[in-house]
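Hi V.,

You were right to ask for the full record rather than a summary. Here it is.
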Amino acid sequence: MFLGASSWVFSWAPPYEEAIKTISRLGLKGVELTIWNEEFMNDYYTEEKNKELKQLIADEGLVLTNVFCLPGSQSSPDREVRLKGLENFKKAVSIAKQLGTSQLTTCVTCPFELQFPFEQLRPTTQTWTLDVPKGLDWKQNYADFIETMKLYAEVCEKNDVRLSIEPHPHFYIKNAEGLLRMTEKVGSDRIGINFDPSHLFPMGEIPQVAVYQMQDHIMHTHFSDNDAQSNAHWRPGKGKIDWDATVRALDDIGYNGVISLELEDVPGAAGFPGFHRDPNSNAELIEKEYRLAIEYMEKVFEREGIELEK
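Predicted structure:
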């Protein structure tokens, strides 16, 4: 296993060149890029820019471990809307291959595209609820979602890429059982999991147990910590997750990929506009947090007697 980082924590929106250089300067080996929306897909990730980014990543001695994308609409009741999301995914696959990776990640959507309350507001929200319209056909909606994921799997098979689903609170894939149910119905080894304990933990999962449950499906990881009261993304060691047990479990199942540090809620982190974070990181603060996270994870691997690639 080796350590990496998500570029969007350093710069939420493009350009990502400085984020790539910072991740290299921190001594990490892996880097992730992201396609948040169609605007970035069409305006930033041009063929020429993708060549430049691929070369920069190589020049910095990094490995592009993943491209995160949000094509969306996998559970829309409208099939045409779902198919529009599928077309966006096809574009993301093309971009990922131009950038030099065959690994993509996405979060699927909530049932019926319902707008569940934002998980990080839960600790200070008096009534945690959602207005659900009466008369919705929940069985049909899940069947529509599975049909869509089968189409995603076909795209992956045709293009020789893999798609890891990141579990997320309240989405169709929010825990280990949801992932296992989906993969059984989709029936393709091209669809797996981006193991993200900070999303699984507040949904009631014990991360190391989830590793064993999902072992054959783990393709990529995001590491960050929280106290299970929300899906906050703190640096490992600041919350309640047992990282020694989690790393031990990953090693036990033979996982040898990236441990990608995704510290979205630490001092200095960049964030999406309109919440509580600046879209540009504070270089001094965010680099300090990452150095502390790297030091912590190195000690975890040392305690467990597991080699961490440099």
